[in-house]
Every structure is written in C-alpha cells, then in structure tokens.
Fold this sequence. Notes:
It comes from Streptomyces actuosus. The protein has a single domain, classed as Spore Coat Polysaccharide Biosynthesis Protein SpsA, Chain A (Alpha-Beta Complex). It contains eight helices and seven strands; from the N terminus they run βαβαβαβαββαβααα. The protein has helices at residues 28-44, 59-68, 81-95, 113-123, 158-164, 176-179, 185-194, 198-204, and strands at residues 3-9, 49-56, 71-73, 100-104, 128-132, 139-144, 168-169.
Amino acid sequence: MQWTLVIPLKPLARAKSRLADAADDGVRPGLALAFAQDTVAAALATPAVRDVAVVTDDALAGRELAALGARIVPDEPGGGLNAALAHAAASVRAARPDGAVAALNADLPALRPMELTRVLDAAAEFPRAFLPDAAGIGTTLLSAAPGRALCPEFGPDSRARHRASGAVEITVAEVDSVRQDVDTADDLRAALTLGVGPRTALATRRLPVAGQ
Ligand SMILES: Nc1nc2c(ncn2[C@@H]2O[C@H](COP(=O)(O)OP(=O)(O)OP(=O)(O)O)[C@@H](O)[C@H]2O)c(=O)[nH]1
Ligand SMILES: C=C(OP(=O)(O)O)C(=O)O
C-alpha cells in the first residue's frame, strides 16, 4: 500500500513552548523547523510513502519543506491541530479519493524510514490505526485506509481518545524512532540518543542538552 502522509506544523514562533528550559525564544523556532525538516526528509525517503502534505501557515517552513518535496496545504480552518489535519486529509482525498492517508507528527527528528515502513505495514491491516508516542500518553501516527475518514483526535490523552474512537493500536516492536516525539528537554535527550537527522544535529549542537 502507498501512503500520503499529512504533517501538521503550527507557526514556528509559537512552536515547541515546552522546550523553553532547553532552548530560549530565539532558538526554538529554528529547532522546530529542523525537527520538521528531518521528519519530512525521512518520510519522503520511505518507499511506502507516495507523498507528503504539510499543513501549515508558516511561510518560512512552507518554503523549506516544499524544497524537500512536500506539498504545502494552507491551514485554512485556523481552528487548531485537528481541524488542520481534517482539512489537509480532505484536500489529499479530493486529489486521490482512493488513497491511504496517515497523519504524522512534525516533531520526530530521529525518524528512520525502515521503522516508518514497519508502522505503515502494520497500519495497512486496519481501517484506522494509531501509534502511541514514547511517553505512552499521546499519538505520533494515525492512519485511515482507503475509503475511511481520518477523524483525528490529537491533543491531551490522544492515545486513549484514538483507542476510544475505534482506531486499532499498533503494537509492532522496534519502532522507537516513530514514537519519539520531542516536546520536552528529556524527549530531546532521548531523540539525540536514538540519533537525529542532520538538521536537528546542527540546530542542537550548541545546546547544553546536547552535552556540549
Ligand atoms: N497546522 C497546524 N499544526 C498544529 C496546530 N497546533 C499544533 N500543530 C502541530 O501539531 C503537532 C503537535 O502540536 P503541539 O504539541 O500542540 O505543539 P508543539 O509546538 O509541538 O509543542 P508545545 O508548544 O510545547 O505545545 C506539532 O507538529 C505542531 O506544530 C495548528 O493549529 N495548526
Ligand atoms: C498532539 C499530540 O502531540 P504532542 O505530544 O506533541 O502534544 C498528541 O500526542 O496527540
């Protein structure tokens, strides 16, 4: 099965507020962009991924991610994360009604194509499926098979909410890089231990959290 991934990204100036103790206001927008660039690059390098649509209103991020090969969908609803994802999924389905779609977080800087392949192969078995984040509370990927609506319920306790919505939890092993989203300094340390992509490595090299 070939997938279209939908990746949401809020304006960089407001992104990653929970990283404030690891990176100051002047640094966080660049970090959020680097995470998104490494996420999009790894997604586009995954054979099961046909294309990537990033839903964002950030002009700089839009230019940089389009340069990597992503399609940019304006965040027209302006109604928060789930509205943005539903809008982008509808735009994808308008172009390809029979396509498989998955929402993927933009903050997976350690993402590895082989591991994303394993998750998408597992997701392909179900009408809707999701992968819990490394903390076990949230979600990093939510999939919808052809003909199924995405019905995203990201946000606080999204693992429980996606399960309650009828999506099947993906339990495949050795997919840490797909689960390791970066919200806090501890998350960033964990991602650096897994091994991050080149833009995040560069953007974090002078941060105390990187141990330098
Ligand atoms: N397009 C779009 N993306 C969003 C919106 N809200 C959040 N996102 C993205 O959804 C993912 C999870 O968002 P959050 O956890 O709310 O925000 P964050 O920037 O990752 O972190 P915090 O500021 O610490 O909450 C990130 O990739 C965000 O950039 C929105 O309103 N529109
Ligand atoms: C929005 C979510 O991600 P984050 O952990 O980045 O808040 C989520 O897990 O549903």
